[in-house]
Design a protein that fits this description.
By secondary structure, the chain is an alpha+beta fold. The protein has helices spanning 2-51, 60-137, 143-175, 185-196, 217-233, 293-303, and strands at residues 181-184, 203-207, 212-215, 241-247, 251-259, 307-313, 317-325. It folds into three domains: 2-109, no CATH class; 113-175, Signal transduction histidine kinase, dimerisation/phosphotransfer (DHp) domain (Helix Hairpins); 181-325, Histidine kinase-like ATPase, C-terminal domain (Heat Shock Protein 90, 2-Layer Sandwich). It is 60% helix and 13% strand. The strands form two sheets. The protein has a five-stranded mixed sheet with strand order 2-4-5-7-6. A two-stranded antiparallel sheet has the order 1-3.
Length: 334
């Protein structure tokens, strides 16, 4: 599809280029021919006056020279247009490929995303259908058996709900404009920690200030939630999660560190891809997500003009870091 579109776009680029080239060639030919004719007329007149000859009523000299000059101009313009046609064709093709490349990449990403989303939705639905069909066929099923099946289906419904919410959040971030206010990242982080570790037994935070960023508070809460949830899921039980927040006059630096097996080097470049999961990099194989959380986190950071990165040491620790621009206002002024 995109190969055909590239050729069509190349043809249109080349057609426009050749139309402009031919129009310029016609204008150049007319202007140059007229100028040559005028100069030949003056030259002929001056030569006749200087030599004392009578004027040539048929202008044979001027007509002959003007015709030869016009022929040379036409030949040179033809050569020039041929060169423009060949070089313009190559340039038009390269320009068409460059123009369509982002569209092709977006189309491929959308296709993969749709395929992966369909697969992720199909899996829990298939499990629910199978369990319900088995329950309907089993005439000897007890109340306890039916309750167990209902609880299992309820878990699948929760998974579908989480997946739908994550997909909706990604869609909103792709298309909506975020309302921005001054947000205290220390307050945001402590709010998330209270939600995930109310007892304060695992997550430790180290910060010396209240750095303010201009952003959407809901999105930033989601960002920190994804990173904290990810660190808790993929680290050994009761191991500490260390968060550090620092800032200077221009940037806020946030880092979260957890211990564990770590992430393999070949997996790191794909860790922020949507629906990408690498179970061999995880500590707990039963904690399987949908591979959307980190993609959502990266999107949030990008929308706030920051950068998100990850480093991991095998069998030691994994560190996620992001930076955001700070604003130069005190909390009292906001």
């Amino acid at each position: 599809m995109f190969q055909s579109a590239t050729l069509k776009l190349t043809g249109w680029y080349l057609l426009i280029l050749m139309v402009i080239s031919i129009l310029f060639s016609v204008a150049i030919y007319q202007t140059t021919s007229h100028e040559v004719d005028i100069r030949l007329a003056k030259l002929q007149s001056n030569l006749r006056v200087a030599s004392g000859f009578a004027p040539d009523p048929n202008n044979i000299f001027r007509t002959t020279e003007s015709g030869e000059a016009s022929s040379h101009i036409v030949i040179e313009l033809i050569y020039a247009n041929v060169i423009i046609l060949v070089s313009g064709g190559v340039i038009s093709f390269l320009l068409a490929r460059r123009t369509l490349r982002p569209i092709e990449e977006a189309h491929d990403a959308q296709t993969r995303f749709t395929s992966d989303a369909s697969h992720e939705l199909r899996t829990p639905l298939a499990a629910m259908k199978t369990e319900l069909e088995v329950a309907l066929r089993d005439k000897n099923a007890t109340k306890a058996d039916l309750e167990k099946i209902l609880y299992s289906n309820l878990e699948e419904v929760d998974k579908l709900t989480n997946l739908s919410e994550m997909l909706l959040n990604l869609s909103r971030l792709d298309h909506d404009k975020l309302e921005r206010t001054a947000v205290d990242m220390q307050d945001v982080t402590r709010e998330v920690i209270d939600l995930y570790d109310s007892a304060g037994s695992r997550v430790n935070i180290k910060t010396s200030s209240h750095p303010l960023v201009e952003g959407n508070e809901t999105a930033l809460i989601e960002l920190v939630s994804v990173l904290v949830d990810n660190a808790l899921k993929y680290s050994p039980d009761n191991s500490p999660i260390n968060i550090s927040i620092s800032s200077n006059n221009k940037q806020l630096a946030f880092s979260i560190r957890n211990s564990g097996r770590g992430i393999d080097a070949e997996i790191l470049p794909h860790i922020f891809d949507r629906f990408y999961r690498a179970d061999n990099s995880r500590t707990k194989q039963d904690n399987k997500g949908y591979g959307l959380g980190l993609a959502l986190a990266k999107k949030i950071v990008e929308l706030h003009h920051g950068e998100l990165s990850v480093t991991s040491t095998p069998n030691k620790s994994t560190i996620f870091k992001f930076t955001l621009p700070t604003i130069q206002k005190s909390p009292s002024k906001i």
